[in-house]
Structures are given as structure tokens and as C-alpha cells.
Write a structure and sequence with these properties.
201 residues; alpha/beta; 7-stranded mixed sheet; 35% helix; globular
Length: 201
């Protein structure tokens, strides 16, 4: 995957997430689709507690290896973001992070809204439409996986639908964008996915 979206964008989005978690003085982070756990070490080194949620058994095994070196600060839960709405609504995180997840989500407004139900802040990466994303679409499409691209306007529209206060929408080179937003409590109900027109990028 790094070949297709550029290694620098992968590092940039991880660096962005770590820097913002630090700036926000967050103590509890939810890492949605944590994969092998590249965020675990840098966050745990700053004393941050991380809960990773991940559905793929192979990734969970790698994530467990990463977590083992984190002094008990990292917990891994098997599952997908769709399960988050059944989590205890009083058990909130300071930041929910989704890096490399919106790329594959057909209902991004629901994921963004779900993140708002579990955390005070959201950090999320979005690939841009364009040649890179089209090539990934072809490559992943052969395996039955859809890949979605987002214009800046579409990310802004999605953030607006959740009632989020958008703090930053930074470019990730030419690969896409990374969003930092403050979620507004009370604008969303846990059982009520956001409805609205979703323009295709
Ligand atoms: C491109 S990887 C990104 C991993 C990690 N966040 C990173 O930045 O390196 C996407 C991850 O999302 C996971 N995933 C797939 N479907 C998911 C779902 N419904 N909920 C949460 N994670 C999911 C995949 O198993 C994979 O580990």
C-alpha cells in the first residue's frame, strides 16, 4: 500500500496524529483500524493510553506484538468501527483516530458521526481523488475492495454534517488530507446516523 499512496504521506499522517494528541494533552486515544499498531509506540512513549480496534486477525497479531512493548498502555479490541455505537457512551476518549480507514468506507458520514459519539476530538485521513486513488481502486477492485477519494470540499461537507468544529484540514502532500476537529456533544445521538446528501468525489 505504501507504494501507492507514498511513504511520506503515511509517515506524515502518523506524525500529525502524534503531534496533535500531544498538543491536546490527550490521555486516552481510540485508534480505529489500528492495523499493526504504528501509533502505539509513539503514543505510549508519551504516556498516552491507547485502545486499538481492529477486525483483521493477521493485523491483530501484529498489533499485539507492538502493544507488548508499550508497558501496558495499549489495549486491543477485536472488531470494526461499526461496533463502536454499542460501546458504553459514558466511556469516552479524548481523541478518536482513523488513519487509512475512510479510504475503504462507503458511508463516511456514519464513521465520522460514530467517532463523535466516542471522543472529544477526531483525527482522520482522507485520500484525494486522482491518479493515485484511481490506481488503488483498480488494484483493490480486483480483490472486491472499493476505494473512495475525497475532495477538500467533501471532507468539509462531511465534517459539517456531524456538527464538528473543524480545527484543521491539512494536505498530506498530494495524497490527501488530514482532519482535526472538535466534536460537539449533543449534536448527535448514538443511535441516529447522520443523514444528508453525500456528493461523490
Ligand atoms: C490501511 S490500514 C491502516 C492501518 C493503520 N491505521 C495505519 O495507519 O497504518 C486499514 C486498517 O483498517 C482495518 N479495517 C478494515 N475494516 C475495518 C472496520 N470496519 N473497522 C475498523 N478497521 C477496519 C484493516 O484491517 C486495516 O488494518
Amino acid at each position: 500500500m505504501s507504494r501507492m499512496i507514498g511513504r511520506s504521506a503515511l509517515f506524515e499522517r502518523l506524525d500529525f496524529a502524534v503531534a496533535k494528541v500531544e498538543q491536546l494533552r490527550a490521555n486516552r486515544v481510540l485508534d480505529i483500524g489500528c492495523g499493526s499498531g504504528p501509533l502505539f509506540g509513539p503514543l505510549a512513549a508519551r504516556g498516552v493510553h491507547v485502545t486499538g480496534i481492529e477486525p483483521a486477525p493477521g493485523m491483530i497479531s501484529l498489533a499485539e506484538d507492538s502493544a507488548a512493548a508499550c508497558n501496558g498502555l495499549v489495549e486491543i479490541v477485536r472488531g470494526g468501527w461499526e461496533d463502536l455505537r454499542s460501546w458504553d457512551p459514558n466511556d469516552r476518549f479524548d481523541v478518536a483516530v482513523a488513519l487509512g480507514i475512510f479510504d475503504y468506507v462507503p458511508n463516511p458520514e456514519e464513521l465520522l458521526a460514530t467517532m463523535a459519539t466516542v471522543a472529544e476530538h477526531t483525527i482522520a485521513s482522507f485520500p484525494r481523488p486522482g491518479l493515485r486513488t484511481s490506481l488503488r481502486r483498480l488494484r483493490y477492485g480486483a480483490r472486491g475492495v472499493s476505494v473512495y477519494g475525497y475532495s477538500r470540499a467533501r471532507v468539509e461537507m462531511l465534517a459539517g454534517l456531524t456538527g464538528m468544529e473543524m480545527t484543521q484540514l491539512a494536505p498530506l502532500g498530494r495524497a490527501g488530507y488530514i482532519l482535526l476537529g472538535r466534536n460537539r456533544l449533543g449534536t448527535l445521538r448514538g443511535d441516529d446516523p447522520v443523514q444528508g446528501p453525500v456528493e461523490q468525489a
